[in-house]
Request: fold
Amino acid sequence: MGHLTRLGLALRSARDVDEIATALLTDLHGLPGVRRVGLALAEGGGRRLRFVTTDRLEAGPLEWCHIDAYEDVPLTTVVRTGEPLLGSLDDFTARYAGVVERHRKQSIVALAVIPLPGTGSPIGGLILFFDEPQSFELAQVRLFEATARGTADAVRRVRLTRGRHGADSVPEEPDIAASALSVSILLEGDPRASSAARRFLRGKLVEWDVGEDVSDNALLCLSELVTNAVIHAGTSSELRATLEEGALTVVVRDLGGLGPNETDDAEPAADLDPLRVYGRGLMLVEALSDRWGSERDATGTTVWFALELDGPRETTEKTG
Reply:
């Protein structure tokens, strides 16, 4: 409890994502048996993770690197599934042989990988590397989960309140791989936007030879996202669709900004759940998509969903 109190105070006073990361990594690094700690935050509709570890704490300003969301490592698995991974290093050998080999050389004997909860899919994850055997008893796991919840709340708070004061407010859009297909369009903020978005995406999915079932689900989900953007934000919005690594990701971002009673410097409302911002139509998105997420910040709201294709699609074409 002392750990949670100290860390909770630090997270609540953090002014940006770097301060959140510094407080979190410093605190967790002091736990018994912890050799190293990492924090990952999802970007670009879950297509990339922004990552930093305790190794960077003594090197001056934090330097974040990136992990491709399609790379098969414990952090990407946790962010994709929302389920924690805990165990000795030997427990991970069958699935992550390369990861195990690399960390065994660093005297790591156990891992704990915990998702940062979000609306829909996790917004990131924590990873702790132990140089002592761990039993991962219930009390310890609950401490990790409480820490993850506090971290996720802090990230949402700074993204909502930082706004035009810093770059933390809007996660960067990752570069599109040369083998990927990607298109975008600006939609008007009126009721006709939903049908225009469906026509645009339907045409692209036909070009990309996406199966009928996936296309139908994508169009239904897209209709909900654009309709909600028009009703609740009343602004233009950007639609971006990307097909890569056997998955279709669709992102809709409006320019709704802060609510009428909010300012850049004010504390956000206690309820940051975008389901309340966007209405219950996202229940359909949750039911039809393989993964989805929503993030609100001071300049608007981003909602995305991903659908797995029936099989891998080999292509070298790229469209913009």
